[in-house]
Amino acid sequence: MKKLLAFVLAAAMVFTLTACGGGSTPTTEAPKTTTTAAAPGTTASGQTTAATPETTAPPAPAANEVTDWVHYLTQVNEMETFNILYSQANKELQVLTNCIDGLLSNDNYGNLVPGLAEKWETTDGGKTWTFHLRDGVKWVDVKGTEKADVTAEDFLWGLEWVLNFHKNEAANTSMPIEMIQGAGDYYNYTKELDEAAGKALGIDKLKEMVGIEAKDAKTLVYTCVDKLPYFDTLTTYNCLYPAAPQLIKDLGVDGFKACTNENMWYCGPYVMPTFVRENEKVMTPNPLYWNKDCKRFNSVTYKMVESGAQAYQMYENGELSYVELTEDALLTIHDNINHQFYQNLVEARPTKYSYQIHLNWNKNMEKSEDPDTNWNTAVQNEAFRLALYYGLDATPYLERTNSINPLKCANYCYTMSQLVNFSSGKEYTERVMELIGITPSLDNYPRYDAAKAEQYKKQAMEELAAKGVTFPVLMDYYISGSSTTAADTAFVFGEMIKKNLGDDFVKLNTLTYVSSLANEVRKPRKASIYINGWGADYGDPQNYLGQETYGEDNAYYSISYVNTNDITEPELIEIYKEFTKMVNDAKNITDDMDKRYEAYAQAEAFMLKHALCIPWYKNVSWQLTHVNDYSKIYAPYGIQTNRFVNWETSKDGYTTADYDTFAASYEAGAGK
Amino acid sequence: MLKYTIKRLLQSLLTVFIVVTIVFLLLRLMPNDYYFTEDELIKLTDEQKEDKLRAAGLLDPTLTQLGKFYKNLLTKGDLGTSRRISNGQPVWELIGEKFGISMRLGLIALGIALLIGIPMGILQARYKNGIFDHLGTAYTIFINAVPRLVAYSLIYMLGVKLFKLPSMYSIRDPGRSSILPIVCLAVGSIASYALWMRRYMVDDLTKDYIKLARIKGVSTRGIMFKHVMRNAFVPMAQNLPVTFLLTIGGSLLVESFFAVPGMGPLLTRAITRYDTNVVQALVLLYSVMGILGMFLGDLLMSVFDPRIRLAGKGGETR
User: Would you call A443 exposed, middle or buried from its count of C-beta atoms within 10 A (0-12, 13-18, 19+)?
Assistant: First the structure.
């Protein structure tokens, strides 16, 4: 009896486990494709009038080019959704931008180039925009099988999805609502409906209420709320991407929202037959991709790694095609001339983010909800801010990002460089730096002026002492409690302040939050300063400066971080009002882009001269790589940067000398 | 026996209910702001946030939410969808993707650990104070003294550098890429089984019934296999089912280290991302597995040791 019971028990356990383990991993066999063309790509210069793409021939592929690219992402960057209309996070968009195309894209100089639209124009200075879709664009499934044509109406379905509260839960609504006529009304209309009615909506009501129209299958017209000369740049961002109505119908609203790599449809350069969460994803070329001439890899594999250190190990083992180096790895290689990778150290191009020190105008005490009067009074004093502005030599801080060429990470403007150019070819931030009297240098940090800093410090201490401020003023700065890197950097920051301004003026008080900066710090107004970066969603300085204005609901940093509308110092309020007026005046110049950019540059210079925030750094890291970064799309806004198309690669891995040549060649071709 | 089984099942159901309810209520005590990602907190207005919370039912009274949770679970077997790990995907589907992988690696590692660890313990006991015993003890001490992450790093370096094994688990090459995770999973268990097997056997070897058996002329081999080993295995048998079932849970450290897409890191990721439905499902799963494992362990123990009766008052030994 006992033996029988033992057998039954054992059998039951095996059965239970076998039944539980039946779930298969979500993979699909990759379609066998051989599409790896390497013929001419296209570029376009048109922005506000009819644009005809120029055609240029990319270099023919060399024999030793990489055909199967292996990329890596850290585990925290695993995708949470495949719905490109829903995603608001780079971790998804950097992958999905390879799966679905928008109307327009960018080239390696950041110029707008045709995408699904082969040409586009505005005839009234940016109020109405017409996009002409190209022929032969197909939706395909994960196996590359044709499912439908991409039509102008698909963009209506896409916008309906974005604006429909019950479908997209308010994700990605802010820019369409801000820019497209009737979009806000439509969003509010859907919100008032019950869930079933909201989900049942098609595009009829959208056509009636919103400024978007499919004139025919290939012609799409947007009507903006005003003249928006930069509206075409927004089409490179996912909020204006298409959706296939048949797919929504097939999957249902909930199914489309939770679509996967296996059941979604693709119209971009790649499809993704394999996705294993927290392990790897593999993309292969879309066999019916409209651009037969663009160069693609036979496969692109993303490996999900635990840390940068692990990625470096994998690169050493030949398991990755590139690796961004941690500070430790960089110094290990750099300090050893005999290191196998010594010749292969190459500097990456700056990312699209411009980092600033934001000053909180209305901070609360660390342990109570009472205002921190000492800090609030001090920071609203201009001499105090200018002492910080001129008195901080950021070089040691920048070494944390780039220990070899720290000053390449120096950032002196609020707007990120390369966003827009004047018609003369002059880059916008160069003009801003002219206005604030800064000439960037790789030898010293030009904003640092010890004499001016000392003078402003003395002035501030006199003025503020009269108002009852005690010194040193405590500057509360919050970092993630789990990040040793952030702790090390904060230590360097604190020492830098002490060295540059002495310990009798300002003292950095580094504090930690557990999991959410927004909930634990920003909302209860606990920090004196924030160091954070902004990357543009569309190509206009308004997307930067509009975040800092006074008394405006859309000014993100003013409202959500620094509490600009709670400033009490009348002089500072006047400065802010003047700055806001300058920004809005610039915004209203829509018929002359040079004048517009000049007006924005003046506003930005005004903002910096009054040290309303302090430009801090940009990200220029070091890497070991098999790709020429200068051949990649370099988009200063939108989501195009991470597309694996037209990359120039080498099986051998590039050297420092190669990259010097690439950079020189790139600079020579700039402004073409 | 039947009475005992029914009683234990009812106790188990009550325990699961209490655990799941407490976790559900604790999760509802967290501020609703954690429902949103940092990106959403940046981009959504307060009104939009409230709309989303209402749509998700998170503004309902807590007891109403609890009622809905049990109603969906009991009537439809529905634990809801993931919000942050994989937006919109049913939770069971998400778990189903992962536990097959964890269990496969876990069971292979467990099998290896049993096949090596138990004979190792037997040999150590049989040749107590001999060279084999010393070597085995050194291994056990080394494994228990060195932090697991250091041991894994050593295995990683040896495997990757010397044997050119893949440093990451790959679903496309599960054979070779599973070797290092399995070795890492097994090294600790081998030491553990060897240690306990040796200890129980050495204990038993000093008992009177063994002396009697020797006097009666039973061979050493007979004593070891017929008496000592069987008795020594009883306490280990009790833990075997729960160990067996909890292989489903995977290993946080090993799976993170080798990027195994298994269950190991899922619970911590679900908690840190406030994916409440996933947390609740995992708590339910683990509590069921734990309780079922202990129940099966009790039954198995009674099979190996006829002196143990489960049906008596509180279980007793004859």
Answer: exposed
Domain boundary among B39, B74, B91: B91
Nearest-angstrom CA–CA distance, B161 and B173: 18
| Shortest Cα–Cα distance, A670 to chain B (Å) | 34
Residue B37's domain spans which residues? 2-91
Structural domains in chain B (count): 2
Interface mutation vs chain A, best among B87, B102, B278, B299, most A CBs within 10 Å = B87
Contact between chains at A279 and B169 (C-beta distance less than 8 A): yes
| CATH domain A362-618 topology | Dipeptide-binding Protein; domain 3 (3.10.105)
Q: Are residues B217 and B145 in the same domain?
A: yes
Residue A358, H or E segment: strand A353-359
Do B132 and B278 lie in a common domain?
Answer: yes
Nearest CA-CA distance, residue A531 and chain B, Å:
15
**ipTM passes above 0.85:** no
A460-495 pLDDT tens trace: 999 999 999 999 999 999 999 888 889 999 999 999
Reported confidence tier of residue A174, pLDDT bands at 50, 70, 90? confident
Say whether both B104 and B196 belong to one domain: yes
List pLDDT tens digits, range A372-424: 999 999 999 999 999 999 999 999 999 988 989 999 999 999 999 999 999 99
Q: How far is CA A40 from the centre of its chain?
A: 28
By CA distance, what is A174's nearest residue in B? B43
Q: Which residue has the higher pLDDT, A442 or A152?
A: A152
pLDDT digits (tens, 9 = 90+) for B171-190: 888 889 999 999 999 999 99
B44 and A5 within 8 Å at the Cβ level: the answer is: no
Nearest to A516 among B38, B167, B303 (CB): B38
The CATH topology of domain A80-276 is: Dipeptide-binding Protein; domain 1 (3.90.76)
List where CATH 3.90.76.10 sits in chain A: 80-276
What's the CA dihedral at B139, B144, B149, B155 to 10 degrees? 10
Instruction: Based on the fold, state whether residues B121 and B54 are members of the same structural domain.
Output: no
Nearest neighbour of B296 by CB, restricted to A9, A282, A310: A9
Could you give the CA distance from residue A53 to residue A103 in angstroms, rounded to a whole number?
Answer: 13
Task: Round to whole Å and give the CA distance between A100 and A296.
Answer: 15
Same domain, B108 and B150: yes
A277 vs B31, B40, B97: nearest CB? B97
